[in-house]
Write a structure and sequence with these properties.
Elements lengths: L1 H69 L11 H32 L10 H25 L2 H14 L4 H13 L4 H4 L8 H8 L7 E4 L4 E7 L6 E9 L2 E12 L13
Antiparallel strand pairs: 1-2, 2-3, 3-4
Helix pairs in contact: 1-2, 1-3, 2-3, 3-4, 4-5
């Protein structure tokens, strides 16, 4: 009896050990499968971003062609339909925006799904996804500045990136430049000269925030106001229509005194 009992116990112990090994093996297999799926998904996201970059390059070339066509500089012997080219650019812009939104959403979902336990560092896959997200956010911030002079929104994005990546020197430098450019100084403003076009003014000073632009249709005039501080004072560039375009006819660095609302809302700067 005792011998049989000892044999039964030994067998039970072996069976328990085998069951435990099976459970561990199953768990390891599941983790390996999940990790493989994460790696594969990261590869898809990287390809998605490559496709987006290609679309952005195509858009940049199209915009360059459009600007040349508008200025009367198409290739020799080439006839360009400006209206059609503008339509194509608009369509491409919408496509790029949709691709960027899709990638951003996919990156957020990927990062959230692999979020580490509090206090632990992200894994290598998550770090790559976080870097892609930061790169995309920086492009968006740059667009806010170059397209609409919206420095406040751009600065907010840079600050958010630094919350998750406080040692990112590239973001620190870009943030510092945005903060320096946010308000107009006399030296930078003095670069604008009479006769310059809107695009030339934008290239030198950046585009004025939409809230800080004034149009006077009857007089065919426009005014762009550039805040000099958070207190409401602003410099102004005045342009009148000449042919199909507007050009600078006057500039005033002290156009608007502090605490004035003449130039409009500067909260977006």
């Amino acid at each position: 009896m005792n011998r049989m009992f000892r044999t039964s116990v030994a067998l039970a112990t072996v069976l328990f050990a085998l069951a435990s090994l099976s459970a561990c093996s199953s768990k390891d297999d599941k983790e390996a499968q999940d990790q493989a799926a994460r790696v594969a998904r990261l590869g898809e996201l990287q390809q998605q971003r490559k496709d987006l970059e290609t679309a952005r390059q195509d858009l940049a070339q199209m915009k360059d062609s459009l600007e040349k066509a508008k200025s009367g500089e198409p290739a020799e012997g080439e006839k360009v339909d400006v209206d059609q080219l503008q339509t194509d650019v608009n369509k491409k812009e919408s496509q790029v925006a949709e691709m960027a939104d899709s990638l951003n959403q996919a990156l957020v979902e990927y990062i959230n799904a692999g979020a580490p336990v509090q206090g632990e560092a992200p894994g290598p896959n998550e770090q790559q996804a976080l870097q892609m997200k930061a790169d995309e956010d920086m492009l968006l911030a740059k667009e806010y500045i170059t397209e609409g002079g919206e420095y406040a929104r751009a600065i907010g994005i840079y600050q958010d990136i630094l919350k998750f990546d406080p040692d990112n020197q590239k973001v620190k430098d870009t943030l510092a430049k945005a903060e320096a450019d946010r308000y107009m100084d006399e030296e930078r403003f003095s670069q604008v000269k009479k006769g310059m076009s809107e695009s030339q003014v934008s290239a030198l000073l950046g585009p004025a925030n939409s809230a800080n632009r004034r149009t006077y249709p009857k007089k065919q005039l426009v005014a762009w106001f550039y805040p000099k501080s958070a207190e409401g004072d602003a410099a102004a560039v005045y342009m009148h229509k000449k042919g199909e375009h507007f050009e600078v006819y006057e500039t005033k660095f002290d156009a608007v005194p502090k605490h004035s609302e003449t130039q409009g809302d500067t909260s977006g700067t």
